[in-house]
Amino acid sequence: MDYKKLSDDLLYGCQQNCADCVYAGDHEFECTITKLASSAIANLLIENQALRNAANGFKERAEAAEYELEQKDIYYDQMVDAFAAMDSADLEATKTKLRIAEARAEAIEQDRDRLLEAMKPNCLMCDSMHENGNCTEVGGFCTAIPAAHCPLIPRLMDQLNAEKTRADKAEKERDAAIKELDGVSNAVGDLSDFVDDQIYPLIQYDMYAALRDNIYAITTWEKESEWSGIREE
Q1: SS3 of 158-182
Q2: Domain boundary residue, one of 71, 102, 121
Q3: Which among 193, 218, 196 has a CA at the least distance from the CA of 205?
Q4: Which residues pair with 140 in a beta bridge?
Q5: 137, part of any domain
Q6: 11 and 122 share one domain
Q7: Residue 177, domain member (yes or no)
């Protein structure tokens, strides 16, 4: 709208109506309709500009909020993709790897105990054997084959060293499996916090509940008695 033309029209109309006005030509009682109208228009223009500025501010805030929401959506999609990659099959494979490593370590430990037991009659693990091969209890050579001449000792020592190597390897495999499960645990824990703090306010509750159920299915393995016992060791 042309506000200057509006003001001119008001002035023209006022002049036309002044012909019959009893105060026409009396400056003391000069008509102020045009001045009031012009002042009102100026005030309206000022208020209109203020409203425009406020609207622009709201628009900027809305755009910033929309951008933040888009970034959260992108981050949410990334977290969901990461969660999907960490499926139950991978978790079960890692848990199976841990169980196999633990069973292997236990079997090796039993084999080592049997081997040590088998070596006792040959004086190698005898507490009464002197370094010169004599028996400190009988005062002479051991009642078994003297240690220095026992043909079984080299073979038993080789077996013992081999079992020790196997035990060390099994222990490393078990530690690697435990570390891998710890990494899964930390990742799921971070995902759980993110879902509660960032995702929950943005999605419907049924979607949130389904996501929490999937996270719970993964995190419950930490409470298994078998896993807890292994970690304490």
Answers
A1: HHHHHHHHHHHHHHHHHHHHHHHHH
A2: 71
A3: 196
A4: 135
A5: yes
A6: no
A7: yes
Tally of CA atoms within 13 A in the half-sphere of 120 that contains its CB: 7
Task: Give the residue numbers spanning the domain of 56.
Answer: 3-71
Weakest-pLDDT range from 52-61, 88-97, 115-124, 126-135: 115-124
Domain co-membership, 221 together with 144 = yes
**Amino acid identity, position 29:** F
Nearest CA to 98 among 196, 194, 186, 224?
224
Query: Taking Cα atoms as reference points, which of 47, 73, 103, 95 lies closest to residue 198?
Result: 73
Structural domains in the chain (count): 2
Whole-structure pTM over 0.85, yes or no? Answer: no
In a domain, 64, yes or no: yes
Give CA–CA dist 70/217, Å, rounded: 29
Strand 140-141 versus strand 134-135 pairing type: antiparallel
Mention every residue, 6+ apart, whose C-beta is less than 8 A from residue 185. 219, 222
Instruction: Write the CB contacts of 88 (distance below 8 Å, at least 6 apart in sequence).
Output: 217, 218
Q: How far apart are CA 42 and CA 88, in angstroms?
A: 70
Residues 11 and 46 reside in one and the same domain: yes
Q: pLDDT tens digits for 179-223?
A: 776 666 666 666 666 666 665 565 566 666 666 666 665 555 554
Tell me: pLDDT of 107 over 60.
Answer: yes
CA-wise closest residue to 124 among 165, 161, 169: 161
Poorest-pLDDT segment among 92-96, 122-126, 228-232: 228-232
